[in-house]
Task: inverse folding
C-alpha cells in the first residue's frame, strides 16, 4: 500500500471538500477500496474517513418512501423491518451478496461505488483502460467468462458487480449527494452508473469530491418481489447473471412488471420498454410470445465475446425462473 | 499536473501539522485541525477521481496515535495509517490468535468483533477504529473457562489444522448475535416471519464467509448447531 494521510471530518460538506483534493479518496466500509489499495490499483495519497458522520439511519420520507443514509451497513439495511416488508427485492439482493462479515461493514453508498471484479482490472501486468486509460482491454481477447454482453464497448467489457444496485435500479431509487461547494443534488439511479464507452475509468456521474449522503426509495411498489441470482457456488460469489423483478398481477394476468439485471453490463441493466411486453400476459407463463418479446427487448444488441456467450441464453432462463418464482409466490 | 503538485506542496505545512497533532492521539483535535486546513485549501483537481495514477506526489509514511479497546482493555499505540486492524493486532499488540489467511477479505480467518459485529480485520484500517471496542479470540474465554463456542468446537472436533478456527469461532459469536437480533439470511424462506430454528442450511449460509481448507465443515456445523441450541 502507498502511504497516505488520513482525516476524519465531522460534516458531509467538509468531507466533500477534503475529497476534492487531488489524490484524495473517501472511505466508508473500505471492503473494496482497501483491497484495491493493497494491490496498488487504487493509490490515494489522502483518505477521508466518513464513518462517523452519522448518515446511518433509515427514515420515512414525506412521499411514503425511505431515505437510507449512505452509511447504513448492508446487513442492517437487509434486516430493516420496513425494507423486509415493503422492498423485499432489496433485502433479498443484499442477502445474496458477499458474506456476513462483509455485509456488516459495507455501506449503502459504498456498495454503489464498488468497482468491477474483471480479472484484468486486478492484474496490473495486463492492459486495462479502466485502470490505466489508453492501454487497451485485455478482456476482449482474453478469458471473458464473467464479462458484459450488453452495453459494452471496444474499450471495456467489464460488469458492475453489485447485487444491491440491481435492486435499487428496479425500485427507481435516487442518489442524494453533496459536493465540495456544499451544493446538493439528486441523481436518479438510472443515470448514476455509466456505460464504458471511450471512458471506462469514469464509472458514475459523481463529480470529484461529491459525496453520497443517502439513497431514497419511492413509496412501496406493489407486487411480488423476487431476486434471482445465478452464481458459481451456492453462497459468497458474484453473480454470473441476476434478475431483480417486481411483478403485479390480478386475475392471473400481469398488470405491471419491472425487471433489472446484474452481471450483464457496466451498470445494472434495465430496459423499461421490454417490461411493457409482459403486461396483460398470463402470470406464470414464462414461455409464450409475451415472455419472448420481453426477453428479446432486454437482450437487444447483446453479443458475447467467446467465453461469456452462455450468458445470453442464461438471461432468458434466469428471467423465466424469476417470473415463475414470482407467480408461485 | 506540475501546477497541481505544486499546489499540494504548498500545503506542506499541513503534513507537518497533521503528524504533530496525530501524535497527541486526540481524534477530536485531529479532525478539527485537518478540517481547518482543508477549509483553507481550494478544491483542486478536475480529473474524475476514478483510480489510476494520483495527481498528488507520494507521501512519506504517516503515523498516528490511536486507542483501541481490545478485549476490555484500553491499548494505546502509534501506527502507520496503512496498518490494517489485523496487522495492528498481530504485529503491534502481539495478539496473534487472529490469523492472516488471504489478507483480502475472502477467507474469514481474520474475523474479529468490532463493537460486537463480526468483521474482517484485514479489510479495515486500525486508525478507522480509534476509540472502538474490538473482541478477538483471546477475549472470549474467562480465564481458564472456555467460551461455550470454543467448548463446542472441541467437543465436535470442528477443525483439523486449526488455522481458520479463531475466525470460525469469532464469526460464530457474531453470527449467533445476528440470529438473536432476528436478522434474516439468503436462505431464510419468509423475510417477515419470526426467525425459525438455526438449521444446517442456515448455518452454512451464514458462515459462508469463513473458509476451511481442511474441509472440517460437517463438524463445524455440528458445533455451531450444538452451541446455538444451548444459547437459545
Result:
Amino acid at each position: 500500500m502507498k502511504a497516505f494521510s488520513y482525516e476524519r471530518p465531522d460534516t458531509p460538506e467538509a468531507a466533500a471538500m477534503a475529497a476534492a483534493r487531488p489524490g484524495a479518496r473517501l472511505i466508508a466500509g473500505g471492503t473494496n477500496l482497501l483491497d484495491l489499495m493493497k494491490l496498488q490499483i487504487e493509490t490515494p495519497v489522502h483518505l477521508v474517513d466518513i464513518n462517523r458522520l452519522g448518515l446511518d439511519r433509515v427514515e420515512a420520507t414525506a412521499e411514503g418512501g425511505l431515505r437510507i443514509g449512505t452509511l447504513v451497513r448492508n446487513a442492517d439495511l437487509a434486516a430493516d423491518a420496513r425494507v423486509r416488508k415493503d422492498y423485499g427485492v432489496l433485502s433479498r439482493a443484499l442477502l445474496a451478496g458477499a458474506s456476513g462479515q462483509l455485509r456488516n461493514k459495507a455501506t449503502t453508498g459504498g456498495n454503489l461505488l464498488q468497482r468491477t471484479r474483471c480479472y484484468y482490472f486486478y492484474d496490473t501486468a495486463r492492459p486495462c483502460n479502466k485502470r490505466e486509460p489508453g492501454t487497451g482491454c485485455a478482456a476482449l481477447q482474453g478469458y471473458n467468462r464473467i464479462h458484459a454482453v450488453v452495453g459494452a464497448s471496444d474499450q471495456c467489457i467489464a460488469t458492475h458487480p453489485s447485487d444491491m444496485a440491481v435492486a435499487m435500479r428496479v425500485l427507481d431509487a435516487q442518489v442524494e449527494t453533496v459536493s465540495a461547494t456544499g451544493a446538493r443534488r439528486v441523481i436518479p439511479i438510472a443515470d448514476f452508473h455509466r456505460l464504458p464507452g471511450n471512458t471506462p475509468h469514469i464509472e458514475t456521474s459523481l463529480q470529484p469530491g461529491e459525496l453520497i449522503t443517502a439513497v431514497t426509495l419511492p413509496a412501496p411498489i406493489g407486487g411480488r418481489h423476487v431476486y434471482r441470482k445465478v452464481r458459481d457456488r451456492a453462497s459468497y460469489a458474484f453473480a454470473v447473471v441476476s434478475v431483480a423483478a417486481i411483478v403485479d398481477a390480478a386475475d392471473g394476468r400481469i398488470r405491471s412488471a419491472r425487471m433489472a439485471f446484474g452481471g450483464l453490463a457496466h451498470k445494472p441493466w434495465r430496459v423499461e420498454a421490454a417490461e411493457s411486453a409482459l403486461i396483460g400476459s398470463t402470470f406464470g407463463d414464462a414461455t409464450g410470445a409475451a415472455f419472448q418479446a420481453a426477453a428479446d427487448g432486454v437482450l437487444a444488441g447483446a453479443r458475447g465475446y467467446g467465453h461469456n456467450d452462455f450468458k445470453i441464453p442464461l438471461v432468458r432462463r434466469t428471467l423465466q425462473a424469476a417470473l415463475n418464482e414470482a407467480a408461485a409466490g | 499536473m506540475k501546477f497541481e503538485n505544486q499546489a499540494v506542496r504548498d500545503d506542506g505545512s499541513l503534513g507537518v501539522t497533521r503528524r504533530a497533532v496525530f501524535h497527541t492521539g486526540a481524534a477530536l483535535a485531529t479532525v478539527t485541525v485537518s478540517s481547518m486546513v482543508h477549509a483553507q485549501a481550494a478544491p483542486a483537481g478536475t480529473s474524475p477521481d476514478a483510480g489510476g495514477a494520483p495527481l498528488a506526489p507520494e507521501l512519506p509514511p504517516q503515523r498516528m496515535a490511536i486507542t483501541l479497546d481490545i478485549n476490555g482493555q484500553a491499548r494505546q499505540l502509534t501506527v502507520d495509517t496503512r496498518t490494517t486492524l489485523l496487522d495492528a493486532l498481530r504485529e503491534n499488540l502481539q495478539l496473534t490468535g487472529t490469523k492472516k489467511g488471504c489478507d483480502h477479505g475472502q477467507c474469514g480467518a481474520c474475523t474479529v468483533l468490532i463493537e460486537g459485529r463480526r468483521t474482517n480485520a484485514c479489510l479495515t484500517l486500525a486508525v478507522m477504529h480509534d476509540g472502538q471496542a474490538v473482541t478477538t479470540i483471546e477475549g472470549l474465554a474467562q480465564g481458564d473457562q472456555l467460551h461455550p463456542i470454543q467448548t463446542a468446537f472441541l467437543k465436535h472436533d470442528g477443525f483439523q489444522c486449526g488455522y481458520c478456527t479463531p475466525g470460525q469461532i469469532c464469526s460464530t459469536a457474531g453470527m449467533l448475535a445476528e440470529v438473536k437480533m432476528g436478522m434474516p439470511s439468503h436462505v431464510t424462506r419468509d423475510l417477515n416471519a419470526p426467525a425459525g430454528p438455526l438449521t444446517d442450511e442456515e448455518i452454512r449460509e451464514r458462515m459462508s464467509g469463513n473458509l476451511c481448507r481442511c474441509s472440517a465443515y460437517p463438524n463445524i456445523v455440528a458445533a455451531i448447531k450444538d452451541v446455538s441450541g444451548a444459547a437459545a
About this structure: The longest strand of chain B covers residues 63-70. Confidence is low (pLDDT under 50) at residues 1-54 of chain B. Residues 2-40 of chain B form one domain. DSSP finds eight helices and five strands in chain B.
